[in-house]
Amino acid sequence: MSLRFEQPVIDKTEQSRAHIGITDAEIVQMLAAYRLFGFWRIDIETGHFFASEDVHAIFDLPYSEGPVNLAELMSRIHEDDRNLIAQTFEEASLHGVGFHFVYRVCNRLGGHKLVRSVGRFRDGQSGGGIVGVTYEFVERLRVVGFEDDTRPR
Predict the structure, then answer these.
(1) Number of helices and strands (H, E) in the chain?
(2) For this UniProt entry, which segments traverse the membrane (predicted)?
(3) Spans of all domains in the chain
(4) Backbone dihedral region of 84: left (phi > 0), alpha (psi from -120 to 50 degrees) or beta?
(5) From the CA atom positions of the chain, what is the Rg in Å?
(6) What distance in Å separates the CA atoms of residue 32 and residue 34, rounded to the nearest whole number?
(7) pTM for the complete prediction?
(8) With 60 as the cut, is the pLDDT of residue 10 above it?
(9) How many angstroms separate the CA atoms of 61 and 140, rounded?
(10) Is 104 within 8 Å of 115 (Cβ atoms)?
């Protein structure tokens, strides 16, 4: 599986959205509208992992607002990819870097689906730990249909 570490973004100009008039909340809603796209945070001091509803759905875990059962979550990841996950979090913590990685998660059908996680280290001033997103590579559309009601009655 692929793994890429990144240096913290220093020279990249932040994208401007002010002229578009789009909010962070609207961006999150649009991302979540077309695929399972979840957010998570690891508190390095406690080792607790907190995740949004979509992360729970990706790993087929019951949702709770408290810390996720990491043993149960890790059991859903392909055994060959588990060391990659541990290595990634360790490197991000030690070196303060961001990362991208792709790994396999049980799909409830006897096989695996591809999942991507993107994260970055957070310094102590912003809460410490690691924050990120996780989403499925396989498109699983959340479709809303509208009835064409323009025909004459």
Answers:
(1) 4, 6
(2) none
(3) 36-136
(4) alpha
(5) 18
(6) 6
(7) 0.76
(8) no
(9) 18
(10) yes
Which helix or strand (DSSP H or E) is residue 56 part of? helix 53-58
CA angle 116, 122, 124 (to 5 degrees): 160
Q: For residue 116, give both structure tokens.
A: 């991507």
What superfamily would CATH give domain 36-136? PAS domain (3.30.450.20)
Length reported for the chain = 153
3-state DSSP helix/strand/coil % of the chain, to nearest 5: 25, 25, 45
Structure-block tokens of residue 152 = 């004459």
Per-residue model confidence as pLDDT tens digits over 32-83: 777 888 999 998 888 899 999 999 999 999 999 999 998 899 999 999 999 9
Output the CA torsion sign for 132, 134, 139, 144.
negative
Joined tokens for residue 41: 């945070």
> What is the residue type of 102?
V
HSE of 5, CA atoms in CB hemisphere, 13 A: 15
